[in-house]
Amino acid sequence: MDRLLDSLFPTANEIPEAYRLGEPLVQREYLVNGQLQQWDGPLATVRSPVWLKEGNEERQVTLGNTPLLDADTALTALDAAVHAYDKGRGAWPTMRVAERIQHVETFLGKMREQREAVVKLLMWEIGKNLKDSEKEFDRTCDYIVDTIGALKELDRRSSRFELEQDTLGQIRRAPLGVALCMGPYNYPLNETFTTLIPALIMGNTVVFKPAKFGVLLIRPLLEAFRDSFPAGVINVIYGRGRETVSALMASGKIDVFAFIGTNKAASDLKKLHPRPHRLRAALGLDAKNPGIVLPEVDLDNAVNEAVTGALSFNGQRCTALKILFVHEDVVASFLDKFQRKLAALKPGMPWEPGVALTPLPEAGKIDYLNGLVADAVDKGAKVINEGGGASRGSFFYPALLYPVNAQMRVYHEEQFGPLVPVVPYRDLQTVIDYVLDSDFGQQLSIFGSNSAEVGMLVDTFANQVGRINLNAQCQRGPDTYPFNGRKNSAEGTLSVHDALRVFSIRTLVATRFQESNKQLISDIIRNRESSFLTTDYIF
Ligand code: G3H
């Protein structure tokens, strides 16, 4: 392990030319009211999870800077969004759907031009490997394409009139107002855009604040935002959430709060809003998804899924398997196979071919993970894989912890990192109680082949989590499926289709079905005197 760690971080010269960064990126721009503004105030330093060898030392790379806006400046972005929405009368919220779609298509075209720059920054800022960084970018573009398709479909269905009990009506979805969109550092592009794009395309105006890491990678998209949307429709701010976002929420002018992060931060921010009933929230929060391995099981499949489920992107996924309950009859074999699979995962820098384990972006994370391991070991667990828990700089080699029990912190806390706690069980009720009593309810995985047992567990857990995965790891995709959670894990449901609904409200124009009203509506449609009341069919 020492040898591996000694050769983990490269020298600057060892980085392939295509992935070098050059000069530090000093960003002073932020986007307000259709203009890239220059910030003259203090800047935040952006550090990479990547360290480089310099002589006998290893040093963390400094990538550049981003603006540390103050509350007043953040409020200018909010004012721009409020003005562009203009109480629902602005050009954007009243624009015909087909035209709004054209703006989003323009943005998508410009965004695609920035693929290389964004992918490179994903690797440098959050340590995501090249393959997954490319996947994040492409998946986001696909999400935008699918969102456009879903809106066209929705609009086609709304373009007709309905007649119920002598009442003629047309129902369309209308925007809600000003949306505040904030994403997480593990998917700083994809997860943020899964709220940002639906919010925009439904006619809301937006203030967007990038995640705590993965901030510079939004910079190449600022011009695309500026040039694709009318002024004030999308505003991008930077700075400490405590200062900027708190001021936005306390203003009472945010109508939709789209946030991916901890339930504590979400609750604190929601409480600041003076009119809670006027705030709609779309939240993706904490999770502690269990993987449950039954005694009758295809163990090779269970291990394969558990390894990727627990360790892809070093376990930094809200959907990661964060605790494994394995039946005593198969636990020895499970651990043996798991260790072998884990040992085959390649540690290295994000751009190295085939690399699976990479450095972590959060300062203090290694200490936190060491603390969880020490606590578990203190209470009787062992790190059973060779080199497990070894660390260097920002890198932490995954630790397979066994046997874990309810006294240990890792049994309860969301580690969000490369720690794999395994709990042996004989009585399935222990596992059921864990799920029932958990504060979280995002997803779980059941690995087994006994239909009676799996069927019983499906029924037991259907009212506990948002998704039950059979013989498969937990995951968000495909993005057309609902993604949500119960308890402290989420508020609202996102999917390509659902997100359009989250960021809009059904609005009905209704009239008594009589000659004069039929004539009136026909005239409005024929003369194109309304953008709302129309039978236009979007192709
Ligand atoms: O971090 C949470 C993400 O939504 C997980 O998405 O399951 O596709 O990795 P994923």
UniProtKB/TrEMBL annotation:
SUPFAM superfamilies: ALDH-like (SSF53720). Residues 60-503 form the Aldehyde dehydrogenase domain. Keywords: Oxidoreductase. CDD domains: ALDH_F11_NP-GAPDH. Its EC number is 1.2.1.9. InterPro entries: Ald_DH/histidinol_DH, Ald_DH_C, Ald_DH_CS_CYS, Ald_DH_N, Aldehyde_DH_dom, Aldehyde_DH_Superfamily. It comes from the Bacteria. One of its GO terms (molecular function) is glyceraldehyde-3-phosphate dehydrogenase (NADP+) (non-phosphorylating) activity. Belongs to the aldehyde dehydrogenase family. This is NADP-dependent glyceraldehyde-3-phosphate dehydrogenase. It comes from Pseudomonas wadenswilerensis.
